[in-house]
């Protein structure tokens, strides 16, 4: 019964891990993917344990990616870090608190479950099988070391294992199933008649006096707001960079600097046999078999508890000296090619390490030309933009026209379309521009604005060109709109009045059928309607299941419809549902739903208690 829910939780772990690998660089920033500088600094402290700024940035990026996946048309620029950060931090803190609670309960995750989880992730597979080289490439391309990523997996598995305790202790009683079945499986019998909005509208006349009175009383609704049009000069880092022409001398000089700084990196290819608390006899047995000439790869497949690498003969790929734990790296650095180390201890267990190959990695400077050009342009653009912004600020102060300022700077003056205080298109989509345009300095006194920050390294100065006052639209332009609105109001009021009259008759003993036939109205009887009756109008069905259980003469209500019609509804009978009438599949689904609700509620309460007692520093 609980297997499905357990599988869902396990599935979430896989989805979480895949999510770590699919966060675009653009969301995090390439520099922030490496633990250096501010990225490694503590952003959160939870009961004395730190969560780095890098973790927070990754969580923000993951949140942004999930929102964009669910809303493909959404502009990513709207999902600013400060908007997503509170939720991302809350999720990180919640996960850390559960992890701490699990450790305090004596729970731990060994290397084997981590390896099994990694082997199941499609991003690490080639031809349906785990590929160690692909694994290393994928995680390193996202800024993770192998140890860091495995630690992340272990933390997720630990949290999952701890949460499973709530699932295993949860249960649902038959009485709870019975009570829920009475509600969700109940059926209702009802009648309704329809009052036609179209027929009622034919009896409604709207004269010109009514239109004029409505126009006078609601003049604000029929006025165009004040609008402004501005001239503006825009400067951006992108436009400045695009205009920069680099000389061959500048590029060659930077390439020479890069070549001088790019010392060769020595890379070591390692394989290992990982053992968990091996006996001296086992270590001696493996050493004897190696000494007798047996292949290291075959022994790794037989003995290693790291099933990820065991399937590849123990191969771990290349390391530049920072991939593996320090004791492992020290031992690897001391080996000659083909040599096997003595047992090496790390947190993962005991390793027998073999050095497979040594290579030198040299930066191909010639291939770096494009990135060097981009970096040079970015550097020069930053300084040139700063100079241009300073000049723009000075030249635009008390300027009679932006044309002279633009000529001095060698840029163009642009003009906006008219926009109101609600903003507009292009530059008027910026709140900073709208606020400045409607300020007294710009709108009343006619001064140029201060230099405005538009975001994404874009800046502008604006100056008023034209002010278009608010104006009342001519009655002739809005008369049809007013007439339609007045007609709709009067039709709705008339239908409501008629509906209440019918309900009064129903309460005196009349029936829907008799009233409908008397007044030649459309009517319908519905028997044994369930909450999800597909053949019935949803608006009427929703009203029926919100009505009180009828007494002897029934329960009555009015329900406006989207068409404008009005339904007069008479509920005649409510039949409670029962478990006996439910299919076996339906009963299982109901039980699972109750169970999941209970588990989530209990886990939520537990997490709230953890938050309340935690020492959290942001």
UniProtKB/TrEMBL annotation:
Pfam families: Rotamase, SurA_N_3
Keyword Transport applies: no
Subcellular location, record wording: Cell inner membrane
InterPro entries reported in the protein's UniProt record: PPIase_dom_sf, PPIase_PpiC, PPIase_PpiC_CS, PpiD_chaperone, Trigger_fact/SurA_dom_sf
Transmembrane segments annotated in the record for this chain: 12-35
Assigned keywords, A-Z: Cell inner membrane, Cell membrane, Chaperone, Isomerase, Membrane, Rotamase, Transmembrane, Transmembrane helix
Domain PpiC: 265-357
GO CC terms in record: plasma membrane
Membrane disposition: Single-pass type II membrane protein
Top-level taxon in the UniProt lineage: Bacteria
GO MF, any single term: peptidyl-prolyl cis-trans isomerase activity
Family, similarity comment: Belongs to the PpiD chaperone family.
Name used for this protein in its record: Periplasmic chaperone PpiD
Organism: Gammaproteobacteria bacterium LSUCC0057
